[in-house]
Amino acid sequence: EIKNKQRRHFMFLRWKQQQRKEKLALKKKRRKEREALGDKAPPKAVPKTIENQRVYDETTVDPNDEEVAFDEATDEFAPYFNRQTVPKILITTSDRPRGRTVRFCEQLATVIPNSHVYYRRGLALKRIIPQCIARDFTDLIVINEDRKIPNGLVLSHLPDGPTAHFRMSSVRLRKEIKRKGKEPTEHVPEVILNNFTTRLGHSIGRMFAALFPHDPQFIGRQVATFHNQRDYIFFRFHRYIFKSEKKVGIQELGPRFTLKLRSLQKGTFDSKFGEYEWIHKRREMDTSRRKFHL
Amino acid sequence: SPQVVWSMLGNRQFCSYKMTTKTQNFCRNEYNLTGLCNRSSCPLANSQYATVREEKGRCYLYMKTIERAAFPRRLWERVLLSKNYEKALEEIDENLIYWPRFIRHKCKQRFTKITQYLIRIRKLTLKRQRKLVPLRRKIERRENRREEKALIAAQLDNAIEKELLERLKQDTYGDIYNFPIHAFDKALQQQDAESESESDAEREEDDDDEDVDKREFVEAEDSELSDFEDMDKLETSSEEEEEVEEEASHSKSKGKTPLKGPARRKRPYIEIEYEEETEPGTKTKAA
């Protein structure tokens, strides 16, 4: 009702201060009551977070599930987990990679042991794949580039394994990371996979685990982490040191990036005739803020 | 007459098809044979003119004669040329017999160039083509925002440190790190496990080694796949069923609901202190 903007603004500020004071007073009162009650006080209310309110996903893996265990013993990663195959990774890019992508590929190759970078000069993926299988590669990583920055990742397990297509964002090269350590050494790192709860998450997690050799060298003290939070997978590479029995210090080295799963195909990379296990359908899957699929 | 047209449009006055640059003049007329603005290549200033144009992959020869100059609708006569390169050249020669040399030559040159670029198009469509997918700004912004919030909620450093400490406790690192307090705690845990449960002592010892891992398996919804790594190191799949039973019974006997890992591990430590003192008391009360 006050027509003058300055005065109106002033009154609003005054009202806001008033509200804040009242809120503070209420808080204090409640705290006093709680202390007064002592042991009989009602337990503290747990604040709602998105993780708390997450819509229950029926494909969540129960640790005791035998069906899941059986599936996983017989799927495409079984030879890896039974230690029959050693991972050998081929990293490549889309056509004509620019500087950032090239450097990212190199750094990724140092992080993942037993990996090779090959540049693509107009070769079709469908023709590369049989060659790779012939040369005993177990995994293929294609980094897609757009406007000089990498923005997509296709991870394909080779002898006709599943293919996952991710959207990659916030890629940080080694020199852009603050307080970083020295370069990663040749030791085989450990792998941490966090929060992969559903069946889909399980299969993706196994795909990531299959990239690294099975026996980590603890002398190297390096750890690669894939942390899933609200369908975003954060990749970090650290070096850790145990300062005491309850304290550990970590130092980030190596590149970091985040992935978001776009689709999972059953066979190797085939855009036309592939059988999709899962595609992200925006209209259906993005409707609820509390529903996640990984 | 054509000379008048040229002296007006070409040289002096304005021609809307003419484009001038520093070195050359171009003609934007679609029927122009060479693309330059000349006296001999202007379709407006020549009453007898011919061009080759392509439509949907087929080439046509267009001809204009003086007789039809009064009928704009029928002005350009169109002849379909054959797909065979040599035959098409012969057809051009047939149709343009007795025409000026310049126009015949330029028509054939143009036809050659057109066929070459058509071949190139067909070759390129067979190769892979880059598919451009448009980004939706609103969705991009939404996803970036959500990624930031997820990053904050993830608390990566804490999660990694927690996981590493758990692995240290599960003894996956073996003897590399020897912290004496750790060994003491393990011994206490074992003692605690023996005193609490009512099952056999033998089963208890077995359970301890496996149960330490199994606890990880049940509670840590966070790091289920680390279990696969650890399990692969320590056990084979054949033992899984036994362990499932043992673990189920063990959890029943302990009567604890699966809580978060650190919380559960905290409780035994505290309980050790209290229960050893009050155990006789509780037993007598029960009796």
Short structural summary:
The complex is a heterodimer of chains A (294) and B (287). Chain A has 294 residues and is of the alpha+beta class.
Summary tags:
heterodimer; A: 294 residues; alpha+beta; Rossmann fold; 11-stranded mixed sheet; 29% helix; globular; B: 287 residues; mainly alpha; Enolase-like, domain 1; 3-stranded antiparallel sheet; two-stranded antiparallel sheet; 10 helices; 59% helix; nucleus (chain B); MAK16 protein (chain B); Mak16 (chain B); Ribosomal_eL28/Mak16 (chain B)
Task: Characterise this structure.
The complex is a heterodimer of chains A (294) and B (287). Chain A is an alpha+beta fold and 294 residues long. Chain A has one domain (66-286): Brix domain (Rossmann fold, 3-Layer(aba) Sandwich), CATH 3.40.50. Chain A contains seven helices and eleven strands. Chain A has helices spanning 5-37, 66-74, 78-81, 99-111, 125-134, 199-209, 282-285, and strands at 89-93, 115-117, 139-146, 149-157, 163-172, 190-194, 222-229, 232-242, 248-252, 256-265, 276-279. In chain A, strands 1, 2, 3, 4, 5, 6, 7, 8, 9, 10 and 11 form an eleven-stranded mixed beta sheet that branches. In chain A, a hairpin with a 5-residue loop joins strand 4 and strand 5 (163-172). With 287 residues, chain B is mostly helical. Chain B has a domain at 2-126: Enolase-like, domain 1 (2-Layer Sandwich). In chain B, 59% of the residues lie in helices and 9% in strands. Chain B is built from ten helices and five strands. A three-stranded antiparallel beta sheet of chain B has the order 3-4-5, with helices on one face. A two-stranded antiparallel ribbon of chain B has the order 1-2. In chain B, strand 3 (49-55) and strand 4 (58-64) form a beta hairpin. Chain B is rod-shaped, with a radius of gyration of 45 Å. Mean pLDDT of chain B is 74; it is low at 198-287. At the A-B interface, helix 2, strand 5, strand 6, helix 6 and strand 7 of A face helix 4, helix 5, helix 8 and helix 9 of B. Chain A: It is found in: Nucleus, Nucleolus. Chain A: Residues 33-42 have a biased composition (Basic and acidic residues). Chain A: This is Ribosome production factor 1. Chain A: Residues 21-49 are annotated as: Disordered.
